[in-house]
Amino acid sequence: MASTTHTNHAPTSGAAEVERMLPAEVAEQRITFADILGRRRGDTRPGLLFEDQRFTWDEVVRESEKRAVVLRGLRREGRPFHVGVLLENVPDYIFLIGAGALAGATIVGINPTRRGAELAADIRGVDCDLIVTDSGQAALLDGLDTGVEADRVLTIDGPRWAEALEAAADVDLPDIPEASDPSTTLLLTFTSGSTGAPKAVICSTGRLASLSAINHLSFTREDTTYNSMPLFHGNAIMSCWGPSVFTGATFSMRRKFSASGFLPDVLRFGATFFNYVGRSLAYILAVPETPEEKQTRLRLVFGTEASPHDRDEFERRFGTRPVESYGSSEGGVVISLTPDSPRNALGLPPEFMDVRVVDADGRECPRAEFDEGGRLLNPDVAIGEIVNRTGAAMFEGYYRNPEATAERIDGATYKSGDLGYRDEAGFFYFAGRGGDWLRVDSENFAAAPVERILARFPGVVLVAVYPVPDPRTGDQVMATIEMAPGATFDPEAFGRFLSEQSDLGTKWAPRFVRVVRDIPVTATRKIDKKDLRRQSWTVEDAVYLGDTKAYEYRLMDDDDEAALLAEYERYGRSPA
């Protein structure tokens, strides 16, 4: 791509000093992401590779500066400077993150897997005053009450955006105090919690600068990182993009994840690192093995939630073993695999974190006991909540949600909301989610919105939605339905019904549907989801197996059950 003649010079607050700092020193200083980005100004090495486009690092900075000028020009007094971004992984998304850092704006990553009223509520809840999207993604907003006026929705493939960028090319950024303040919120990334409502995690420009330094994973200027995870998730930004900016490693990117496109991309870009979440590794390994897998330059792989089997297979096929870590966008707890971690363990936290497993009263749980086959013998007392007793300061809170923020904080303690246990050697293990929420293909969402949709199906009296373990990693959606007397469950009609629900998230369709005469309830007449989860799909009642992409359902038979159980056994998991 031809070099630009753009002459903006945003304040860098000592970018030269940042250049000489070690990661630990950056973490201890009041450094902003604008400072981290500023160290790339004038850098003529490759900075961003995307499809057939190539940008030097200096061009990345200058493109970010132009967008910072545009955003500052669109800012309205008396309103939050919140810019929603509804885009695939395209260069403009990267430039907008940089623009937010330089302009003192907050970039809100809008999750395009959400739909309808739920998507609209996400946008309204974070006070977006501007949305940047493209003509394809903009269709998701049609007819929705997002709280953003139509003329405040800009499409990057439209003439207005092009004209604004052209005009910004000759405008210098003024001194922007918010861009120099490490406490300025740079990112809001959505997650889901036990309340059923999405929560927007706050990430300040100072925190992203620190994470960019800490998470650099020994990157060098000679490395090329590769990201195909969505930029509205923290994994893509905090484990790949930010560290690439910090070190000056070349950052390459794909529009969206593709298992079949992974190897061609890695070879084409000469990638030495890539990041993943959830089942991504499993999808890559499902592609037929080829000799070219041994010809990549990969030397570092980092992600979360891959099964031990998949990590073994990836190492065998590509020659590099993935490094795993447990954590979340909130940042309050980190647990990483170590070379001596037991096969199914999460690993250990860093020495500076006081991570424990505690009961409902905050007392540390007894260590786990196992039988000769590795089965947990004392789950009733060993399983508790994973907390970090010194982690509250690492969590910057949820935007406009003090109640949810308070649920995570107890004095100096950060409460993860996840369940786990520890063995006698101190290694941590994951035991499930503490709240009524699910994680499918690395997407978090609450059960309540899904239940509301399924309750519309004709003849349904009660419905419960809950997670059951996926054979490899994460969860699968299961629904138990109680039909009205005289009504029958028609699987074909159910599939058609799901395909017609415009507010059904792309990961929300149930993989398993159990039909019962009476849904179990507690003494207070609440649906007993704990019992349903314990029973999972291995029950005598009718259970329908679903193709969640085609919305096709059929009654599960003995062969289906045997095949599923064999898959669980292969990956060391249980269906309940």
Count of DSSP strands = 26
Shape: globular
Class from helix and strand fractions: alpha/beta
Q: Name the beta content range.
A: 15-25%
- What is the averaged pLDDT score? 89
**Helical proportion, percent range:** 25-40%
Strand arrangement, major sheet: 2-1-10-9-11-12-13-14
The profile of the biggest β sheet is: 8 strands, mixed
Rounded to the nearest angstrom, the radius of gyration is: 24 Å
The parts where pLDDT drops under 50 for at least 5 residues are: 1-16, 192-196
Cα distance spanning the termini: 53 Å
Oligomer: single chain
Number of helices: 18
How would you describe what is shown here?
The protein has 576 residues and is an alpha/beta fold. The chain contains 18 helices and 26 strands. An eight-stranded mixed beta sheet has the order 2-1-10-9-11-12-13-14, with helices on both faces. Helix 5 (91-103) links the parallel strand 3 and strand 4. The longest helix has 18 residues, at 57-74. Residues 1-16 and 192-196 have low confidence and may be disordered.
